[in-house]
Amino acid sequence: MTQIIDGKAISAQIKDELKGKVAEMKEQGIEICLAVIQVGNDPASTVYVGKKKKACEYIGIKSLAYELPEETGEEELLELIGKLNGRKDVNGILVQLPLPKHIAEEKVLAAIEPVKDVDGFHVQNVGSLCVGKKGFVSCTPAGIIQLLKRYHIEIEGKECVVIGRSNIVGKPMALLLLQENGTVTVTHSRTKNLKEVTSRADILVVAIGKPKMITAEYVKEGAVVIDVGIHRNADNKLCGDVDYESVAPKCSAITPVPGGVGPMTIAMLMYNCVESVALQQ
Question: Which of 102, 148, 164, 268 has a CA positioned 20 to 30 A from the CA of residue 5?
Answer without folding.
Answer: 164
